[in-house]
# Entry
Amino acid sequence: MVKRLTRSRQHRMLAGVCGGIAEYSNVDPTVVRLIWAFATIFPPTFFIGLFGYLLCWLIIPEESPA
# Structure
């Protein structure tokens, strides 16, 4: 079975991007959310974090219903 990156339906807070990355990487979704939040909070990486999330929301397909 091929492992695919999809937005999570189970570990969703906003769009499921961080939950999907966490499932794909086999880490806790909270860790991914904290890393993404720190990347968005600090001024030098604010736009990277914000637009990166929006871009991932558009590009990464949603997990199909089981």
About this structure: Residues 36 and 49 are 6 Å apart (CA to CA). The chain has three helices and no strands. The chain has a mean pLDDT of 90.
